């Protein structure tokens, strides 16, 4: 649990999976969330599980696409701008190697 809370409350605002998908977790104003709010969000997922996923179903109908765990923690998952691929300039006249 501490891994999820610490990653979502870090400067990256995302777990490794969310970062790979270009997502980040913010509060309702778009600000970084703290460890406490990330912890509430994490335990809110258990409520979704106990309700047989009904908490996740709200994502389909909620205008801000918030699950029950997001509503409880007052958080929003946002898409981030895709990162530009890292490129290394190839000097003129050289052959690129793989």
UniProtKB/TrEMBL annotation:
It comes from the Bacteria. It is a multi-pass membrane protein. The keyword Cell membrane applies. Coiled coil: none annotated. Keywords: Cell membrane, Membrane, Transmembrane, Transmembrane helix. It is found in: Cell membrane. InterPro entries: Pra-immunoreactive, RDD. Residues 8-73 form the RDD domain. PANTHER family: MEMBRANE PROTEIN, PROLINE-RICH ANTIGEN HOMOLOG-RELATED. This is RDD family protein.
């Amino acid at each position: 649990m501490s891994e999820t809370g610490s990653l979502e409350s870090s400067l990256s605002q995302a777990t490794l999976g969310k970062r790979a998908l270009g997502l980040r977790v913010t509060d309702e104003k778009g600000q970084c969330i703290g460890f406490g709010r990330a912890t509430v969000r994490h335990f809110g997922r258990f409520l979704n599980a106990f309700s047989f996923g009904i908490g996740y179903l709200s994502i389909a109908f909620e205008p801000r696409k918030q699950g029950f765990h997001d509503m409880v923690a007052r958080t929003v998952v946002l898409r981030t701008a895709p990162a530009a691929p890292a490129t290394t300039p190839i000097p003129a006249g050289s052959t690129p190697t793989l």
